[in-house]
Write a structure and sequence with these properties.
- The chain is mostly beta strands.
- It is about 0% helix and about 50% strand.
- It has one helix and 15 strands; from the N terminus they run ββββββββαβββββββ.
- The strands form three sheets. It has a five-stranded antiparallel beta sheet, with no helix packed on it.
Amino acid sequence: MLAKDLKPGTVFKYNDAPHILETLTVQSPSARGGNTLYKFRARNLVTKQKADLVCKGTDFLQDADFEKREVTLMYADIESVHLLDSGDYNQYTIPVADIEHEMQYVCEGLEGMLALVYDGECVGLQVPATVELTITQTDPGVKGNSATGRTKPAVLETGATIQVPEYLKEGEKIKVDTRTHEFLGRA
């Protein structure tokens, strides 16, 4: 695949190991005839080390030989998360430290989770772009203070804390963007 076609979350092969693209910056040249440079920050899915790459837009990167499998959460303990493959009922175990960011949005019954499987081993987890979660704890809104778009912290059912508008109360279901960690609206 071409370097200019990559987006965050894309998995590609670099130094004979699968990497997932985390951030991308585009640097346009100031001189004529210069090539646009794409700077990538990727994470090795096997060793979890970060790698920085600089490519021209016409450079090719190799597709990684992995598969995405739809999974559901079985249970999580202190050290690891146990997932069940929805297709062939294989069980995968992945350390909690490897998927800390994703676990902020995982609750029982969440659909649309994908396990990244490489050589028969689960090396990562992708959660849906938006999830619906319940507010478990937040301060009450003060009447008359709703003229401005002020926000307050709210703790969600998974333990994650995000900023929500003042008018929301405990027990309400909201939509959260898992990529930006932001409130999107009521569910």
